[in-house]
Design a protein that fits this description.
The complex is a heterodimer of chains A (257) and B (282). Chain A is 68% helix and 0% strand. With 257 residues, chain A is an all-alpha fold. The longest helix of chain A is centred in the middle third of the chain and has 29 residues, at 155-183. By secondary structure, chain B is mainly alpha-helical. Classes of the chains: A mainly alpha (257), B mainly alpha (282). At the A-B interface, helix 3, helix 4, helix 5, helix 6 and helix 7 of A face helix 1, helix 5, helix 6, helix 13 and helix 14 of B.
Chain lengths: 257, 282
Amino acid sequence: MLTGETKWIGLENYRWLFNYKYFYISLANTLKYLIVVPFIQFASMGLAVLVNQKIPGIKFFRTLFYVPVITGSVIVSIAWRWIFDVDGILNYILMSLNIIEEPVLWLLDKNVALFSCMFVTFWRGLGYYMIIYLAGLQNIPSELYEAAALDGASSFKKFTRITIPLLRPTMLLCFVLSTMSALKVFEEVFLLTGGKNQTTTLMFETYNLAFNTYQFGRSAALGLIYSAFLITLTLIQFKFFGLGGVGGEKKREKPNK
Amino acid sequence: MRKKGKNQINKKKLIKISLNYALLIILALFFIFPFLWALSTSLKTATDVLTWPPKWIPQPATLDAYKYVIENVPFPRYFLNSLIITALGIIFNVVFASLAAYPLARLEFKGRNLLFFLILLPMMIPIQGGLIVNFITILNLKLFDTYLAVVLPSAVSIFGIFIMRQNYLSIPRDLEDAARIDGCNEFQLWWKIMFPMVRPAATALSIISFAGFWNAFLWPLIVLQSQTKFPLQVGLSYLNSMFEQNYRYITASLIIASIPILVFFFFTQRYFIEGYQGALKQ
């Protein structure tokens, strides 16, 4: 295909894909992966609030929480592969706490493997979104909280009436970013399970067709379907959140300084 | 009576603070546990790795796994490759974004907004659809298995053009007029006046590109073939399949690969956090 003569075969590749079992599995798994998004959003927002406190040593904790982000997806996926091993530490801990009785095949069981991959995505994303939320929190003027305190607002009220509304743009940004990265997941699947045990995703399948089985035409067809899928979801998000103006001219009247 | 009340408040406060720190420490363990466990595994003897129940602390500790890995894996080469790819990537990203964004923000010409829109448009189209197309392009350019092949498809960052443009837009017109009256030509104006004004944005862009190129995996995996050109991430993935179940060697490799990036991060973390804040404020 890459060097030899190519032949026009019309929609044959697409027809093949629609009869290909793993096309449906990868599509379903990619959609399932979206479950990560709400979890990652709530947890990272909570983390950001936690590390936004002005207490001694907080910068040190911030740094520690960010370590998985900075070491990168390859290193953390491989580290988790060892933890998830049948004879690994996770099974040992859970068994000694009597949470499970039999070792769980975290990466080999078809009903569990995808969730193990999702957990690693969740775990390694937390620090990243924490920093974005932290930036959002720190951009909220402190006068607002002071004024609310004078009016006798409780900290819960301050959180729901000031923090949440002013954090809305940050929440939207994080939501879009984490949705996109959940739909494009590759490293976790490649390194933890190699796409086996019902963990293949659209991104992995596109790669797999081309570079493991050398079916470039079919992979390109899948890539196009995948892109159309991503573009549709992005447009829905933009429409839903009114981010359509991102590309347009932003009217930013900055006071002269 | 009054004293007692004060004491109670202090006690309450103390409990709150302790709970706070307890929570922070538990979370910190949650985030660094995989690294600690990798460190522990890498220091164990070959038989200790397989014992059940697993030992938390390696006893006796040995550096054998490190010795073996360092002798058999070209780590310096992997690091050098990662550095070359990352440096090239950052330079391309910053130079192209700051030069492309400048006319889009500061010069008046016909069709400027249309041009900007056309530049932003591909941001909507994910690179996934282009995986095969880009791969075939690289093959036909005879760039397969080169550093340039790794960097080229992401040499221009659309997001980078976007943030740079937003930053150029916020520079007051008076400054530009003053420079022109003083006889600056267009290039001097950009280099001496405009670029220094947007340097924080350029720093933010460098940091974002750094993270992107250093951690890039799928694309280098596809376009590189010879082990001598592998960046760290691809090298590690190769080791992961080569050592398969030999977790001592795998974890030793992970630790060796993590240390430089962690050291680098501890010294530059201020920029990482400020970088995102800078990019967000726009």
